Structures are given as structure tokens and as C-alpha cells.
Amino acid sequence: MKVLVVNSGSSSLKYQILDMETEKLLCKGLVERIGLSDSHIVQKCSGNVFEETLKLDDHEQAFKRVIELITHNEYGCLKSLEELHAVGHRLVHGGEKFSASTLITDEVLEEMEHLVNLAPLHNPANITGVKAARKLLKNIPQVGVFDTAFHQTMPAMAYMYGIPYQLYETHKIRRYGFHGTSHKYVSGQAAKLLNKNIKDLKIVSCHIGNGASVAAIDGGKVIDTSMGFTPLEGLMMGTRSGDLDPAIILYLIRTAGYTPDEVDTIINQRSGIFGVSNYLSFDMRDIRKARDEGNKLAGLALDMYIYRIAKYIGSYATAMKGLDAVIFTAGVGENTVEIRQRVSEYLTIFGAEISDEKNEAIYGVGGIFSKEGSKVKLLMIPTNEELAIARDTIEILKH
Fold it and tell me: For residue 106, what are the contacts with CB-CB under 8 A and spacing of at least 6?
């Protein structure tokens, strides 16, 4: 069974085709600058690379071109659309309505429209992509896989904020969590690597990239996660502040004279690693290089980044009343040996023992990098959200 996995952004369309009999990646591509005169497409299929610049006015035009390319006799991977069994869409916010992946119907789309105010930067783009795909691929089942769904097992004591309950009832203000598809995938992979039933494991999953979140997964179910009502809460990230005293925002508006929009820009786009390093970079490679050259603010940003990850892991071990494994994944978690090492050093109190040799050796491939006999297992697992979406899509079709 072949599945097309789609991730629609406001001006982009990322896609992959996977053969789910073998879970083999057949083709992947990216359309960027949709809506501009110089839209750009890159597609890689079976060693063939196709690239072009053209004018694509909207997502529907982009999808039409993608369909042409994936069925192209030279550059594509399908002889015809009859080989395509389903489309799986990455959808950011499912609110409380969607606690699992679901077949996309008119009713589901209508409900997603109602959730736009919870994710105004992401849901409209996701919906646009879904509508374009449904219009052009009318006879192919389409499934929505929500980033928030995996976190819907959190108890109320974890997802509620200490604000008037009426604000939850009226505006649905609560912690939702994000990166759920990634956390679900890597925790499942960890159970396989450890040869354990996931129901018997207490796992902290660290999705650490430009955006970053930590999830406490007890018996395969999330009991807490660091991102909240929006992806701003939690860890310090590339450009996002993470946890912040809310009175700071009021101070900046009332006393320092910033507008709400200016504060929004500060905490989402000019904070985190980027802000603390005095706008040096949000790329961890640049930060570490500058630190090594004596830049004190780069060193401070790195120290803060590592400290906050370790602090969250410790709090989640307490919340789960135990800890069996810690997973590092996503761009920074997968590629930065130093981050894994320094975070793991904080975890010796829980019985984690790192093997520096294994930590170096797992680059690019993943695996266990704790010492034999370590009470807490340390793992690096490359995430694969597209495969996770395709798996969920196939499961929905089966049922």
C-alpha cells in the first residue's frame, strides 16, 4: 500500500510517498514560495532529482504540479494515481476534539475550521492543503494526523492552568502539547530497542530542534509535556523564550512601551538561543563555535539550553515516580554529541551512566548510548514523523 504524506505550510508543501508493505521511502519533495512568481520545487525519487522554478498561485496549483511529478515516467515513482491508496496529512492542532488520527470528512474539516483560533499560524495552512488534496484526489481516502493528539491522555492536573476555570470552559485555554507524532514514534522505537513492552516503561522523550519539547510517557501514554496552549511554553528554543514569568509581558507593554505585536515578536522570534546570544544565531553549530572562540553570551545561551532540558527531565521523573529511559531526537538531539553528554551528566542521580564512546558512535544511526548496567537507559533515536503519519493512515484505513 502506497501512502502520500503531506505537510502544508502557509507558502510551502512538503510531501513523501512511502510503500507501507516495506515502509520504504519512494519519493520526497518540497514546494516553496507558493503564491509568488518564483515558486520552487525539488523532488527526489529513486536517485532522480527534479528541480524547477515556476509560478504557482496557490496550494491547488502546487498540488496539481506535485501529482504530475509523482506520476512522471522519468522523475516520478508511480505509474498512475491508481497505485496511491491514501493521503496522510500532518495537522498541527486538534484541540480536545481529536484525540487520535481520523479519516477526513466534511464534518472533520468543519471542526478544524472552528479550531483555527487555537493555531492561527498553522491550522489555516493545513486546511488549505487538505482542501486542495481532496479536490484533486477525490477517490483517495485522506487521513488527518494531529500533533496534539498523542498528548490528549494528560490528566487535568497536568493540562490545566492556575487561572479561572471559566477561561477553560469559554476559551479552551489549557496545555495541549505539540510534536506528538514525533514523541509517539520515538517512544515506540525505544521500546523495540530495549526489547520491552512500552506499557512497562517510564520514558522521557526530548524532541530538541529549533522548536523543542519534552514529554513524560508512562506506559505508552503522555502524562505531561512541556509545550502548552501554544508551542511557546516550555524549553528555551532557537528563537522562542520558553517558560517566562507572565508579568514580564505586562511590564513590557505597560512600562517599557512595547506594543502587544512587538512583544509577540520578541518572545517568539527574537528570544531563546538567538536572543540570549545577543542575536548571534539560532543555530546550535554557530553557538557552540562562538562559545569555543570565547563568546561568553554564546556560552551562557548553551548552558541555559542544557540546564532547562535537564530540569524538565528531572521533574518528569518525579511526576512518573520513576524513570527507565531518556530519548534524544530531532535536529539538535540527534546531531549534537555535547548536548546529549551534558544533559545526561545531570541524570546520574537517577542512575543514568553515559558511555562517551557509544555517544560518539551513534551519530547518524541512533541507538543506546548508556553503559551496560545503567539503571536509566539513554537513547538517541532519529525521528520519522512522515513514517508515523503513514502508519496511522494505514491503521485508519484498516478500521
Answer: none
Among all residues, which ones are annotated catalytic? 147
pTM (whole model) above 0.90 = yes
- What structural domains does the chain harbor? 2-146 (3.30.420.40), 197-385 (3.30.420.40)
Q: Three-state SS for 58?
A: coil
Angle at which helices 59-70 and 123-136 cross, to 10° = 50
With b for 16 or more beta-carbon neighbours within 10 A and e for fewer, the 228-256 pattern comes to bbbbbbbbbbbbbbbeeeeeebeebeeee
Q: Which residue has the cell 548553551?
A: 302
Say how far apart CA 369 and CA 117 lie, in whole Å: 42
Q: Say which amino acid occupies 12.
A: S
Residue 165: all three cell numbers together? 476555570
pLDDT in tens, 212-245: 999 999 999 999 999 999 889 999 999 999 999 9
Q: What is the dihedral of CA 225, 262, 210, 343, to 10 degrees?
A: -60
